[in-house]
Amino acid sequence: AGDAAAGEDKIGTCVACHGTDGQGLAPIYPNLTGQSATYLESSIKAYRDGQRKGGNAALMTPMAQGLSDEDIADIAAYYSSQE
Predict the structure, then answer these.
(1) What is the DSSP letter of 32?
(2) How far apart are CA 79 and CA 20, in angstroms?
(3) How does it assemble?
């Protein structure tokens, strides 16, 4: 499981589309608030690893490519803890 406090320090790239609270800033950006950390983690890894195509993959893949497994777990923990 990730560390939500550490995740808050790692969301710099995420906030442009998902905001600090995980609420998508435009309709095409999904809300991350309260999503399962497991789901978020697997989704971000799939984008990073090029396994997820279509939709927002063109945006998400480059954003996720620099993230380690630990970074992803921490970010997922952070957004899943938001209300």
Answers:
(1) -
(2) 8
(3) Homodimer.
Number of domains in the chain: 1
Contact assessment for residue 72 and residue 64, using Cβ atoms and an 8 Å cutoff: yes
- The answer on whether 14 is annotated among ligand-binding residues is yes
Name, in order, each residue with C-beta under 8 angstroms of 71's C-beta and a sequence gap of 6 or more. 10
The CATH number of residue 59's host domain is 1.10.760.10
pLDDT single digits (tens) 9-65: 999 999 999 999 999 999 999 999 999 999 999 999 999 999 999 989 999 999 999
> How far apart, in whole angstroms, are the C-alpha atoms of residue 64 and residue 60?
6
Specify the amino acid at residue 64. A
Confirm or deny that 63 is annotated as ligand binding. yes
Task: Match 């890894």 to its residue by tokens.
Answer: 45
Domain limits at 31?
4-81
